[in-house]
Write a structure and sequence with these properties.
The chain is of the alpha/beta class. Helix content is 23%, strand content 29%. GO terms for molecular function: transferase activity.
């Protein structure tokens, strides 16, 4: 029997940016990502297994989109507060945390909605199991 084709994970994320140098500085100096490659129209940043592409695009927005779409970055509970303090000095907040686990919701220089989150899918599902709500179903593997 052959295996059903399926995706195996996240490969990379590309964000359109209006000022490449400003974005490289934000992701490197504020969030601590490693710059792995750069060229006149883009850059590759790395954070753990995350491969983030910054792509220069004159159509990049500087205001956040009105929907809830965002990217959440993983952070250790021991360094969460210190990184939050660094981010809050340079970035604007877009939401107050109301979910399980520590979270900081902030905007990058082009208005992309970002989040720092302490926790994992497993800790979120355990929280949902411990705090059931009508209509919410947690599926086991």
């Amino acid at each position: 029997m052959t295996e059903t084709p399926k995706v195996s994970g996240l490969n990379h994320i590309t964000l359109a940016v209006s000022d490449l140098n400003r974005s490289i500085a934000f992701y490197r100096e504020t969030l601590g990502m490693t710059l792995r490659a750069e060229w006149p129209e883009g850059a590759y940043m790395e954070a753990g297994a995350l491969w983030l592409c910054l792509s220069l695009d004159p159509a990049a927005r500087t205001l956040p989109h009105p929907d809830y779409t965002h990217i959440a970055f993983d952070i250790s509970p021991t360094t969460f507060k210190a990184l939050c303090m660094r981010i809050e000095k340079v970035a604007r907040s877009w939401k107050t945390n109301a979910s399980e686990g520590g979270s900081l919701y902030f905007l990058d220089p082009d208005g992309h909605k970002l989040e720092l989150h302490v926790g994992s899918l497993e800790t979120r599902l355990e929280h949902y199991k411990a705090n059931p709500m009508p209509g919410r179903i947690v599926h086991d593997r």
